[in-house]
Amino acid sequence: MTSPRNVVIGVTGGIAAYKACHLVRDFKEAGDSVRVVPTENALQFVGAATFEALSGNPVDTGVFTRVDSVQHVRIGQEADLIIVAPATADIIARIAAGRADDLLTSTILVATCPVVLAPAMHTEMWVNPATQANVATLRQRGMTVLEPADGRLTGKDSGPGRMLEPGQIAELARTVAEVGAIGRGLEGKRVLISAGGTQENIDPVRFIGNRSSGRQGFALAEIAAQRGAEVTVVAGDINELYTPAGAEIVRVRSTRELEEEMNARAAGADIIVMAAAVSDFRPRTEAPSKMKKGADTEALARIELVENPDVLHGLVDKRRAGETDAVIVGFAAETDNPLEYGKEKLARKGADMLMVNSVAGGAVFGQARNSGWLVGSDGTVTEIADGPKQVVAAQIWDAIEDFER
Ligand code: CTP
User: Fold this and answer.
1) What is the CATH classification number for the domain harbouring 271?
2) Cα(90) to centroid of ligand 1, in Å?
3) CA separation for the pair 43, 48 (Å, rounded)
4) Structural domains in the chain (count)
C-alpha cells in the first residue's frame, strides 16, 4: 500500500527515542497520517508536546484517556502500518507475550496490518536468549523485526543493538507496507554483491566510467542483510546517503580492482549478484601527472582504450572450474529491446539469472525506483513491477530464493 496511509509510530523508552521525531516527520512529509503512541517510559526521553506538534495528532500512553472513542482498539483497527522505533527488549517481550497493558501493546494486539520493530538496546540484551527467542516468535508470526546496526550505543559501549537510522527504518517500513514482511529467507547464506560504477583513470584528475548510483545494489544488500544473510558489498563509485546496515563494504575504483575483490570472495559465497555498472574499457596508459590542454591536446583527443575483463563471465568460468558453487545473478541495462537483448546476454554470460532494466530516456540511473524483468537460465521470465528499489530488491531475492530451491 502506498501513501497516504494511516501510520502508527510506537515509541518506547530508550535513548534512541529522539530519533523517532525524524521518523514522524518523514512520514508526515510523505503525506501520511501519523499517530504517535509512546509508552510512559518513552516520555522520559521525549515530551508528548514534541510528538503532538510533529504528528498533528493527540498523544496518549494509557487506555483510560479518550475512552469514549475506544481508541485502545480503534487506533490498531485503522492502522495501515505500525512501526515501533525504538523497540526496547521490554516491548519486544511484551508483544511476544501478547500483553495489552498500555495503549501501544493494545494497539499492536488489535492490528492486522504489517508491523515493523526497530530494536535498540545494549548488545547484552539483544543477544540474550530471552530476547532472541522473543524476536524469533514475532518473526514467525509475520512481524518484521529489523536487524539492528552494529555501532555506538549509549555511553561508551559499542556493538550490535544500535537502532537503524530513521531514514533506513522509513525505507524498510515502506517496503514492508508493500510486500507484507521482509522475511528471513536468506538466513545463513553468504551473499556477495557488487554495486556502483567503476572508474578508470586517464590521469590524476580525469577518468572514464559508467553511470550508476549504486542504489539498487545497496538496496539488495540491505534487504539481504535484513533477511538474515551475511553480506559483503564490493562497491565502486556510489552516490547513496546510507550504507546498508549489516553489510561489509569493500571499496574499489577500477574494474580490475573490482574483479580482484570479487574473485577473492567468490569461493565463500552462496549467491553472487553483479549489480555494478562495470566500465568495459580503460585507457591503455594512465598519465602520472595531469595532462594539459595545449601540450597534451592531441593525446587527450585520442585516448586509446583497451578492453577490461568481464567480471561476471570470469565468475561463471570459476564455477565451471569448480572454484565456487554460488548462484550467479547479473544485471543488464539496455536502451533498446531490453527483454530480447537481456535473454541473449544471459545466454552469452552463462549466469543463472539476469535482471534486465530498460534505461531509455535516463530511467533507472540515480532514481529511487526501478522495474524490469528477471530472466532465468531455466527459461523463466519474472516481470518486476515498477517500485522503489528496495521493493524491487525484495522481489529479486524472492526469485533467487525460488531459483535456489
Ligand atoms: N559486467 C561485468 N564485467 C564487465 C561488463 C559487465 O561483470 N566488463 C557485468 C555487469 O555487472 C552486469 C552484466 O555484466 O551484471 C551485464 O552488464 P552490461 O554492461 O549490460 O553488459 P556488457 O557485457 O557490457 O554488454 P554491452 O555493453 O554490450 O551491452
Assistant:
1) 3.40.50.10300
2) 49
3) 6
4) 2
Residue bearing the CA closest to ligand 1, atom 27: 280
- How many residues appear in the chain? 405
Pocket test for ligand 1, best of 252, 260, 278 (most atoms within 8 A of CB): 278
Indicate which atom in ligand 1 lies nearest the CA of residue 307: 8
For residue 126, the cross-strand partners are none
Q: Which residues have any ligand 1 atom within 6 Å of their CB?
A: 255, 274, 276, 278, 280, 308, 310-312, 330-333
Give this prediction's pTM: 0.94
Per-residue pLDDT of the chain (405 residues; tens, 9 = 90+): 677 899 999 999 999 999 999 999 999 999 999 999 999 999 999 999 999 999 999 999 999 888 888 889 999 999 999 999 999 999 999 999 999 999 999 999 999 999 999 999 999 999 999 999 999 999 999 999 999 999 888 888 899 999 999 999 999 999 999 999 999 999 999 999 999 999 999 999 999 999 888 999 999 999 999 999 999 999 999 987 778 989 999 999 999 999 999 999 999 999 999 999 999 999 999 999 999 999 999 999 999 999 999 999 999 999 999 999 999 999 998 888 888 999 999 999 999 999 998 877 666 666 778 889 999 998 899 999 889 999 999 999 999 999 865
Residue 47 and residue 121 in one domain:
yes
The single residue listed with the C-alpha cell 521470465 is 381
* C-alpha 241 to ligand 1 mean position (Å): 25
Residues 322, 224 share a domain: yes
Residues 127 and 161 in one domain: yes
Q: Rounded distance, CA 257 to CA 253, Å? A: 7
Say if residue 138 carries a ligand binding annotation: no
Closest CA to 389 of 363, 362, 371: 371
Shortest-distance atom of ligand 1 to CA 348 = 23
Which DSSP category does 197 fall into? B
Q: What's the rounded Cα separation, in Å, for the pair 392 and 386?
A: 8
Q: Which residues carry out catalysis?
A: 210
The residue whose CB lies within 8 Å of the most ligand 1 atoms, and thus the one to mutate among 280, 317, 318, 348, is: 280
Looking at the domain assignment, is residue 185 inside a domain? no
Q: How far is 71 from 60, CA to CA, in rounded Å? A: 10
Torsion sign across C-alpha atoms 350, 351, 352, 357: negative
